[in-house]
UniProtKB/TrEMBL annotation:
A GO-annotated cellular component: membrane
Keyword set, alphabetical order: ATP-binding, Cell inner membrane, Cell membrane, Membrane, Nucleotide-binding, Translocase, Transport
Organism: Pseudoponticoccus marisrubri
Domain ABC transporter, chain residue ranges per copy: 2-246
Gene3D superfamilies noted in UniProt: P-loop containing nucleotide triphosphate hydrolases
Location of the region described as Disordered in the Swiss-Prot/TrEMBL record: 252-273
Record's protein name: Phosphonate ABC transporter ATP-binding protein
Pfam families reported for this sequence: ABC_tran
Record GO terms (molecular function): ABC-type phosphonate transporter activity; ATP binding; ATP hydrolysis activity
Amino acid sequence: MLKLEGLSKTYKTGDAALSDVTLTIPKGQIVGLIGPSGAGKSTLIRCINRLVEPSAGKVLLGDVDLARLGKTELRRQRRRIGMIFQEYALVERLTVMENVLSGRLGYVPFWRSFLRRYPGRDVQQAFRLLDRVGLMHQADKRADALSGGQRQRVGIARALAQEPELLLVDEPTASLDPKTSRQIMRLLTEICAERDLPAIVNIHDVPLAQQFMQRIIGLRAGEVVFDGTPRELTENVLTTIYGAEDWDAMRRGDEEQSAAEADARDRMAALAQ
């Protein structure tokens, strides 16, 4: 379980990125984090694993306050948190398998990682994870030869290789087309359900969040302004989070864009035959 108590972040400029955020995320719950640009979504995720240092508050993963740890203990505790990035953060010259095995770097001696001699158990686990994300046949391919969706699947497998207790996911679909976005979100939610793994997903696509998230937290100007189920995310609530907008028109536009992109793919496939 993750508990945030009074989590705040103020930069040296005096800008408050987060203000007194208090949340509890139980085991197995998948939470969508939504809000306009600059609302503090990425800062919140990065404060949890201390890629950004909080100014105040507690970050409790189980009974350990991550916000109070020194560098050595923080490195050890970070193994408990899997991070999935928007831009994948793969080593492109390495193979898919080597990128997945890099999730074990916090567990193996330096010489093993330097020589790429991982224990047999880690290699077997990596093959199982690649099979789970549908990339077993790509194990020996270089990461820079993969599509965006395939790269995100590698990122998911790498995070799972850590055997984490929490997943932090930063805009996993921002660079993907609508169909691939749904496939990635479906994969993430299935994996979290299988492992009873809690996850916080920073996601800019509101309809996608409503489709796949169990709980949605809305941030605005660094403060939590909504915390509820997807069904409770009404137009009035969306206006509170984002400001005034014709939300029905936006949803229709998303649907029309998805249909147009699907039609274009079908035409390209027909031409290729």
